[in-house]
Amino acid sequence: MQGQAALARCSCSSSPGVPTLGPYRLRLLLEAAATLRGDLRRLGSDLLWSQGTPEALVGRLVALAVGAGATRLALHHYSQPGRGSADLERTVAAAFAAAAARQGVPTSVQRYWGSTLHHPDDLPFAALLPQRAAASAGSCADGSSGGAANARSQQQELQHPQQQQQQQQQPAAGSASGGGVDLQQDRFACLPSVMSDFRRELLQARTPVRPPLSPPLAADGSSSSSGSSCGGSTVASAPVLPPLPAGLAAEAAAAGLAAPLPTQVAAVYAAAGPAAAAALARWEELSGQRCADLAPAGSGAHDPRSAVPFGMGEAAGLRRLRHFVGLDAGEEAAVDDHSVHGKRAADQPPPLAGYQDSRMLAFGVDTSAKLSAFLSMGCLSPRTVYAEVLRLAAADAAAEQPQAAAQQQQGEQQRQRHQQQQQGEQQAEQQAEQLGVWRDPQRGDTWRWLLMHLTIRDYFIFLALKEGEALERAEGLAGRPVTWQHDAARFKRWTLGQTGLPFVDACMRELAATGYTSNRGRQNVADFLTKALGLDWRWGAQWYESLLGDHDLAVNLGNWAYNSGVGSDPRDRTFRTVSQGQRYDPEAALVRAWVPELAALQPAELSHTPWEASPEALAAAGVVLGEAGSTSPGSSSGGGGGGGVQTGPGSHAGCGLPFKLANFQGLYECTDSVRVGRPASLSELRTLVSLYPRVKAVGTGHSYVRDLFCTGNGSDALDIVMTELQPVLDLSAAVPVDPQQWQGRGAPPDVPIRVDEEAETVMVATGVTQRTLLDYLAGYTHGLSPRGWTLPVPAGFIDQTMGGAVATGTHGSSMQWGSLSSQLAGLQLVLANGTLLELTPQSNPHLFRAAAVSVGRLGVLTQLTFRIVRQQQGVQRTLQNLTVDAFIQQIKATADGYAEAQAARDEEGVQRALRQLDEAQGFWAVPASYVLRVDFQRPDGPATAACSPSPTRVHRAAIWQDGEPAADVHANVTRRDGSAGSEQAAGVPAPEAPVAAAAVDRLGVLAAEAPGPAAEAAVFPQTDEPAIAPNLPMTSSAAFWSQFFMAALAPKLTPGTFNSSRESFLTLTEAETKLIGTLAPYRQHEVVIPLERAGTCLQQVAAELYGPNQAWEGMRTPWVIRFVRGEDPYLSPTAGGPVMWINLDDYVSLSSGTPNAPFERVVELLRAQCGGRLHWGKEGWTNHARCFDGASEYAATWCSFGCAAQELGAGNKFASEFAGWRFAATRDGQPAGFASCCTPAGFSQDCRT
């Protein structure tokens, strides 16, 4: 046992100072070891016990074995993921080899893998395959090539002949043997970072689960009485365990290694030395518990309130598993099970029957499986759980289908005939196929939900192997700098359960007293520690590591990073702790059990919100509230967000404390005084809007302008988080969301997505993300569209909320459908006074158009109705690599054709011209002087005219060997004048420093396939190792940065035919947008230009970029050029005509602190000579316009919008601090009431803004 190190070690210099192996887990470990010793002794073997460092103990064991006559020694162990495990394994192996060498005996080391449901060699990700297999399987983008079965066969082919012979000799080949599985970090590079993607790829690849091994037999053929054959589901023959040599047993007994295991936890810490004793004392201080009072291991004594009143060991784990899934009907409880599981009648449904609904509940023994401690301790393997669940599923299927029963019987006979592992794997896969294992759980499923959680556990373990030490950085995997606080006093209030929030306090007290709290409780207390108190998430993770009896390092760290907003998941949500408690502890059973101060409050629900109780109710229950609604008399809330006995808006439901709000770049933050509203319902939202003088709605933080998400600078300002309304949270928590579960009956009322197939519309809450909506629509296949539904053209940010995408005028590229707001069929708006208003194009066209693109300036959007289309198969995406001149000629020909047809009133000619640009997008690498053009052809869409011929060029980066190029990297670069050059493209400076190809790969790019004329110059040897990006500053080589971003973009644009519209969309994920935003701060501009001027405009721009002024030097990222049909005049300068959007970013001015003059010249050219209008959702607007998109230039739009605000009573409630949002009017040079200037005919000609 690793005594001193685990009992005393603290993970970082600023840690809480508690032991990583805490008392509850140590007690379970002692119980598990005791039961394992009993099992081994029944087999004629033994388990020896001692305390010390592993390297010292292994040397002692070697000496004992050799002294007993051993002539050959083997060290067998399972590999573990996580902090220091690999180093520890190497240290022990080296100590073992050295000790054996001193004794003159040969050794071998055998490593195994059993931590996960799926074996690493079976995962369908290319980088996880052996080297030769990976070479044939392709890149991460096509990681499933070859399949898992093929990978396993190639793995066997690649093994050393001795390994193959060992496997043939060992029937139990299901575990990693003969050297063990390769767990090097780079093997997991292609593992999906997002959990839902990981699960989806496992399901799609039908990733197999290897059958569990049979328990070992003694030399005489007997087995351990507590072992299990898993109901006959194993296929590997049982290994024979040789007896412990008599000499070794005697030597061990004489050395005291066979003495009874300790049962007093405190004694183990005392024996570990002063450091362990000091860490334990700190643990007792922070938990409020005394280790000496902990019941002895094996006593069966538990707190009567405990949700995990189980002993530890394989037998106890199997009993718990079979009780939960229902394979114990009619069985008597074991004597040593302490009556936890009584006899269950055959007709009584097992706990698993209600698992889908109960698994999130915070109180009760059977609400969830409670298998985590058995899994983390190694008493049960995930594969054993899987086998038992499939046994249950097969029994259910056999009971319902006699034919299936016959097939099951036939399969059982076959398993008895075949004992080899490969055959067993094939049979397991066949059974899984028959039972539909590779399908997401749906409403009514039971066992699939349990298997899903095993897969989620796999994800966190494999993620830890992929990320290594990065998982424990302060900024986590998100990579965004975060300033965490280290306030010891507040942390102690949290650990002791004295925050003032009943649900948080109950969970923390339960954890401190029992070593367990529910999954939902863990998420909420983590959220509160990091997002309400602002304390370092690693403190919380280390406290959990020390407290949890079921602690698993990878699972714990992964969950903490996720719930703290620094994990790998693109979503970063915040819990409403009070409503979470009300939902998942609906009868306040958890709160009343663990916060007895509130137990007498009536009705019971008031225990969650004692600050809402009347003085009479508080007095009757003997409750005295603290300063801010604390449940502990005389104490403050410690930052709790539940409100309290206060006055003013802050006392109302949904009102949070000051909270750090920032956009996705981390470039702009709201002041700390701005309050955060987290309404759980529409009624709460309306109340908050009416109470506060300044209000803004916020989604996932995709705003480029501070004034779009910061409503003000003082405490009278409230930002309302739209992603935390309870229906939206429930939808996010129900992963995956399968609309088929309602089978056409219509979703329940609280589901915030409603499909109307007859009207071809979908109604969605504004806090739902576009990803969730698209996935939901794609799965809506049980009605009129067997392939499901989709939005006609989505927005570019897939993780943006639907409300944010609409209000900020987000768009794709479509001449047929227009921007996202143009696809609206209705909306719901909360006005300044809290009134709820429904608007449609028919009911009030003027107000509907204004509200749809209002950036929250007119009210808070709460619900949107979109038009939808049937999902299509066979969508084609084409890619052209064009010179700038060729691209401009294409656009000019189309634009000129449109203008001529428009002038001639030739409607057919107009539509023919527009079809040539429908869904077309251009990505212009300005310094590198080329454009990638992407077009789409949909099977039932309008035929598009062929583009002018232009061959697609394929470029390969130079191959690097030992840090040097294998060939002249500039040999194939084409100069702007068309000649070849080996130095650099004419006019384009060479990169100023070498940069890693791996940095490009961080963005999901294969550098060897970077496109573009100068792609060979995009990859350079590495001099140092940046975390996520090259070390070149943005102020350096424009040519390099242009190529870097184009290489990052290239995989998104891959041409081909797609199975669905959903797969063909060009979108950026939350993780990608945040990663790009961390390279350097930037200001995004977007200019919209009338289509008839597009070709001439691009020619003028090219002359400015590549002519004498060389304005290309101010550019870094590629320009994105898109085309949108006639838009509302609120969004378009052409009163409804088609337009070209140009997206361009200024990285230089913020990085250098000086104006980016070339960039500004181009922006002014687009505005002055091209008739361009700035998009008011991007930062360029606030830098160039005095007010709303320059009211002086577009007075009619501005004034009409102002009249809409006047009509809706918006005032300046939603205006933030930016003066451009303020509506004011003058008449004859004198201030005039804005309302007096609004007439039925529009804004009065006598008025000015």
UniProtKB/TrEMBL annotation:
Pfam families: ALO, FAD_binding_4, FAD_binding_7. Keywords: FAD, Flavoprotein, Oxidoreductase. One of its GO terms (biological process) is photoreactive repair. Residues 1-117 form the Photolyase/cryptochrome alpha/beta domain. The record marks 484, 537, 560 as: Electron transfer via tryptophanyl radical. Residues 137-170, 216-235, 403-434 have a biased composition (Low complexity). PROSITE patterns: FAD_PCMH, PHR_CRY_ALPHA_BETA. It comes from the Eukaryota. FAD binds at residues 550-552. Belongs to the DNA photolyase class-1 family. PANTHER family: CRYPTOCHROME, CRYPTOCHROME DASH. This is Cryptochrome DASH-like isoform B. It comes from Micractinium conductrix.
